[in-house]
Design goal:
The chain is an alpha/beta fold and 278 residues long. The chain folds into 2 domains: 226 residues, 3-Layer(aba) Sandwich (Rossmann fold), CATH 3.40.50.1820; 42 residues, no CATH class. The chain has 11 helices and 8 strands. An 8-stranded mixed sheet has the order 1-2-4-3-5-6-7-8, sandwiched between helices. Strand 5, helix 2 and strand 6 form a beta-alpha-beta unit. Helix 2 crosses helix 8. The radius of gyration is 18 Å and the shape is globular. The protein starts with a strand and ends with a helix.
């Protein structure tokens, strides 16, 4: 397991899978160990995946300063990784909350990004957030599922602040609630640093106006990848986020949720490679 040292002395780990041109991968969660990404549905057969364990997750060390879990504070970690692996510029793929980190990195180091793929990405760095109604609208698409009648009221209560997070509505995050999805979800608690996740989006992490201005210098193509059934972000929100990038495209994966490489691996790899290798 290779490691490098961040600017503040924290030892950070990354995992290398596959072969081909390097693809730096930033996980979501927020602050979930990169192991949940697997080989991204078979992407490792086409690309050398370099999966970073963000500080305090997976095999990376816990930092001395917990405030360094904040998203913007981790931009330097990504730049240190780039320098460590010796890439002048790189393709970057991020998932979910990791898209906020990838967006901030692209704004800070636009000349280091060759292509940027934001997979069901959280657009908080751009000042955009998913609304409860957007999530509920997406959830209503699943009304024919056998678990819907129990899951929808639990989701609605959570989103309106009248209930707590409930495992009953986890199926909404997956395009298919099958054994693969159940196993993937069961591993989440062990893989996630909850304290770090609470600090990731802390006040001060984002300055959307400045980020949008800085992104004008980004010439790299950007892919915003949305799942048709995903409520956060919905395809509509992904299209709004795309407006912040000078050279962006949006793709919507039919029947997919928040983890499209699990819902339809072949389709995910085909669509993503079509962008990365264009």
């Amino acid at each position: 397991m290779p490691t490098f040292t961040a600017a503040d002395g924290t030892r950070l780990a990354y995992h290398v899978r596959g072969e081909g041109e390097p693809l730096v991968v930033l996980p979501g969660g927020p602050m979930r160990a990169s192991d949940y990404l697997g080989d991204l549905g078979g992407m490792a057969a086409h690309r050398l995946l370099i999966l970073l364990d963000l500080r305090g997750t997976g095999d990376s060390a816990v930092p001395a300063d917990p405030a360094s879990y904040r998203c913007d504070r981790q931009v330097d970690d990504v730049e240190m990784l780039r320098a460590h692996i010796g890439l002048d510029h790189m393709d970057v793929l991020s998932h979910s909350a990791g898209a906020s980190l990838a967006t901030l990195y692209a704004a800070a180091h636009p000349h280091r990004v060759r292509r940027l793929a934001l997979i069901t990405g959280n657009p908080s760095a751009l000042g955009l957030r998913t609304t409860p109604e957007e999530r509920l609208t997406a959830a209503r698409q699943r009304s024919g599922e056998p678990w819907f009648d129990k899951a929808f009221p639990a989701l609605e209560a959570w989103l309106t602040g009248t209930g707590d997070f409930d495992e009953a509505f986890v199926p909404f995050f997956y395009g298919r609630w099958d054994d693969t999805a159940r196993a993937h979800d069961a591993a989440a608690e062990e893989q996630t640093n909850d304290e770090a996740g609470e600090r990731y989006f802390a006040e001060g992490a984002f300055t959307p106006g400045a980020t949008r201005t800085a992104l004008r210098a980004l010439t790299a193509p950007v892919l915003l990848y949305a799942g048709e059934l995903d409520g956060g972000p919905s395809p509509a929100l992904a299209r709004r986020a795309a407006e912040a990038f000078p050279n962006a495209e949006v793709t919507v994966h039919p029947g997919a949720g928040h983890y499209p490489w699990l819902d339809e691996p072949e389709g995910f790899v085909r669509r993503t490679l079509g962008f990365l290798d264009a």
